[in-house]
Amino acid sequence: MELIKHLKSERPYQEMWNTFVYFESEPTTKEFLEKIYIKNGYDESFKYAFLNTSKFIYFIKQSKEYFHSAENSNILVKPLLIYYGMMNLIKAIVLTKDPDYPRNSGVLRHGITTRKLKKNNYSFRDDEIKIQKEGLLPHFYSLVTNHSSDKIEGNKYQIKELISLLPELQTSYQRIFQQQLLYPIEISIENHNKKTQTLMLRIPKKVLQFFNQDQKKFCKDLNLYNQKKDFTFSLCQNVDQQNIEYSKFLSEDAIYIDYLIKNENVNNLSYYNIFQNPMIIQDFKGNYFIKPIIDTKLILPELMIYYMIMYNLGMLCRYETELWGDINFSFTSEDMYIINEFINISLRKFPNLVLNLLFNEILVFDSI
């Protein structure tokens, strides 16, 4: 269960990057790595921490420079700078989970490819990304999910379907594609006693369209991906309308699920991320969303989704310079709006997700 920390600042984005300064000190970084290696069961954790401290620090520092340079750069080169910043942060995460990284030259590849030759009527939203057998991304996937990279090897993803999975882009996605695949949910907490609490999820009924309007099937699928086996969903049914505490929580446009939590030694669940479930995700402000899992190949770490899309944009910058220029400056591209939104969100969200993973906490940087 991850702790949710709300960190208030007059400049939340700057505060986020200031948090990375923790990793610019050799003593604190060495101690940080040693603790992680011990927790992950590695022998000679002190030795690994000693050997990897400088490498880890430079991954972080170089990534920080790439991101800061990207903020002030022209759109013609911005995605490429962000991509290399992302790559270094991914390498930092990999190093915490694989102290021997890189074990071989295979893991130094990107691990993903995109179409080499673009069609005449190129559309960014319809472009595809394919997962390769070896490389940084499949290696990262296997380390953070504990699944073999064989599970995603050869998978192809359209840019459009990857964008549909990002909560911060939902308004733009719906405006462009006239389609909704993520839905905001509301949560209410009821304390029964010191050992039992109930969370009520208010979920839009529109979600049921993906489950043939079957509430039981929806609950079954939700539990299928639930990683906390001691958590159970009650039957999907409307709450007693006489319940005053939940009266403002109810409407005919929603379904309600009781999420019973037992024997959790916490005082206030609102400070914890209790959903270890790929169908329930958060935006960088801490709001929860539910995404129906229609295709299991879309169960991906959010960091991977950002990385894959930015890889595609980076390759356009680097190898399709004329095409990239036309997309940005010809005024005829239908993709520039969503590209611009994605780039701006990536600058804010990706480093935040990395901090969450490194500290095993959900850090929400709020304005004062």
Number of strands: 13
Q: Determine the fraction of residues in helical runs and give it as a percent range.
A: 40-55%
The low-confidence parts are: 238-250
Succession of helices and strands: EHHHHEEHEHHEEEHEEEEEHHHE
Number of helices: 11
Secondary-structure-derived class: alpha+beta
| Widest sheet, order of strands | 6-7-9-8
Radius of gyration: 22 Å
Q: Approximately what portion of the residues adopt beta-strand conformation?
A: 15-25%
Quickly describe the structure.
This protein is an alpha+beta fold. It has helices spanning 12-19, 26-39, 45-71, 78-97, 136-145, 159-163, 170-177, 215-224, 302-319, 321-329, 336-359, and strands at residues 2-9, 112-114, 128-131, 156-158, 183-184, 186-191, 196-204, 232-233, 254-262, 272-273, 280-282, 288-290, 361-367. It folds into 2 domains: 2-177 and 298-367, no CATH class; 183-290.
